[in-house]
Amino acid sequence: MMTKRWSVDKNVDKEESYPQLSQAADLLKNNEVVAFPTETVYGLGGNAENDEAVKKIFAAKGRPSDNPLIIHIADKRQLDVFVQEIPEKAKSLMDLFWPGPLTLIFNVKEGILSNYATAGLSTVAVRMPDHPVALSLLKTTGLPIAAPSANRSGRPSPTAADHVWEDLNGRIAGLVDGGPTGVGVESTVLDCTDATPVILRPGGITKEQIEAVIANVHIDPALADQGQAPKSPGMKYRHYAPDAPLYLVEGTREKIQQLVDEKRQEGHSVGVLTTAENREFYHADFVFACGQREHLETVASSLYEALRHFNHTDADIIYSEMFPDEGVGQAIMNRLMKAAGHRVIR
Ligand code: TXA
Ligand code: MG
């Protein structure tokens, strides 16, 4: 399949973007799949009401069929079409954080969305992305659009159009290039079907931000305990992994350097994932810095790109620093732990 690629203005201010966006919207309306930027990561969109379109998403990604998709909307009124009821707490959160990186889980109305999109569950995940290109596409189609991250299953999520191209060129109908995304980690997934909402996946909106609105929020215990089955089907899969094995190291940079030296003496090609502050400290075959430790949102923003970088090197082992488990650091550590297959050197 030939993948069409359009380069559009991030703010959709320029008139030359309109015909391109309308071509992309036409493909979506014709039940083809198109990748587009959101404020978190690039998504691979398809008509959520159409089985064939949704099946194409799963096929292009190589995604297991028991992992449901997030439905993207541009207007809150679209919710009434396919959601049973909107709890008061969810309403307060939507008022404050939509559009934005917060996905809410509701009980689904039968018979409207493709069962492939919900993986046959009685609930549905919904969000309104905070990106002019995504919102413009959603409005033009008028459809609920199912959109997982636009990467091949298991790989780091794409934060630039080139990452999507690397993974999906030839497998999807179109790619709308709106430049790099901002937040860099995916949306927070919050289950609102119980009296006390539960965070199923930490993400762009922090636990602290949610607590400021609804006082009481739980975190799925499976996120901290590998022995338990997570409530979000996608959280059980290995994900975000670079090609070479990644190890997280708890301890000083001196300790990490010592590990690097040992492996290099054994003849390995060693990579280090760090931040700007420590960039010059390490001596390894490949050192990549993602953001500044002082500003965790800059780490989130460039984390996946840094993980992808290693795939363009011949590093055969990677060591990474760890980050504080608070604020957006919770999402960063969640993704790093998965990328490392939970290998931590203490
Ligand atoms: O930021 C994001 O959320 C990005 C952009 C493209 O919007 N999308 C994204 O989608 O991260 P995806 O498919 O990579 O992750 C969706 C997550 C998975 O862990 C999935 O299991 C979970 O949401 N999920 C979807 N529907 C669910 C449901 N009904 N109950 C529990 N978890 C659900
Ligand atoms: Mg994903």
For the record, the CATH architecture of the largest domain stands as Alpha-Beta Complex
Bound molecules: threonylcarbamoyladenylate, magnesium ion
Give me the secondary-structure category.
alpha/beta
Count of folded domains: 2
Number of strands: 16
CATH homologous group name of the largest domain: DHBP synthase
CATH class of the largest domain: Alpha Beta
Euclidean distance between termini CA atoms:
47 Å
Strand order of the largest sheet: 1-8-2-3-7-4-6-5-9-10-11
What form results from the Cα inertia axes? globular
Largest sheet: 11 strands, mixed
List unreliable stretches of 5+ residues: none
- Proportion of β residues? 15-25%
Query: Mean pLDDT, as a whole number?
Result: 95
H/E topology pattern: EHEEHEHHEEHEHEEEHEEHEEHEHE
Q: How many whole angstroms does the radius of gyration measure?
A: 20 Å
Examine the coordinates and then state which fold CATH places here, giving the name of the CATH topology of the largest domain: DHBP synthase
The number of helices is 10
Give the helix level as a range of percent: 25-40%
